[in-house]
Amino acid sequence: MSEPQAPNNWQQPNQYQSTQPTQPAFQQPTAFQQPTALQQPGQQYGSPQMPAAADSGSLGWAVLGFFIPLVGLILFLVWKDTKPLSAKKAGIGALVSVIVGAVCTVIGIAIFIGLLYQAAPNF
Q1: Is the N end or the C end of the chain the one with fewer CB atoms within 10 Å?
Q2: CA dihedral 33, 34, 40, 42 (to 10 degrees)
């Protein structure tokens, strides 16, 4: 006995059948094309626009620059064009820290020398 056979032209429907996606038709800019209303002059096509950085000039940057002068100097150099108020605070904090450190060093050396002369007056 033979089993019934399905007709040759019968196929199971493919529920996952996909069609080829098509690209939308956009005009690509040429090298000499004028910027559109959405583009700023000098802006490259498709470049991301960064939001304007908030420049608060907080006292916290001065405190950070005072206690860690190297970080204050680096922040000043990095932010001097983009965040001038915050850069100024960080730079001032670092500068004040270096000046206070130098003054304390000079005073410490003067006290040390004074104590040496006081402890050994006959030398």
Answers
A1: N
A2: 60
pTM for this prediction: 0.55
Q: How many other CB atoms sit within 10 Å of the CB of residue 29?
A: 14
Q: Which residue has the tokens 């006959």?
A: 122
CA distances from 118 to 4, 105, 108, 109 (A): 121, 20, 15, 14
Query: pLDDT tens per residue, the chain (123 residues)?
Result: 566 665 566 666 666 666 666 666 666 655 565 555 555 555 555 556 666 668 888 999 999 999 999 999 999 999 999 999 999 999 999 999 999 999 999 999 999 999 998 888 776
Q: Cβ(62)–Cβ(90) under 8 Å?
A: yes
**Which of 34, 56, 54, 38 lies closest to 46, judged by CA?**
38
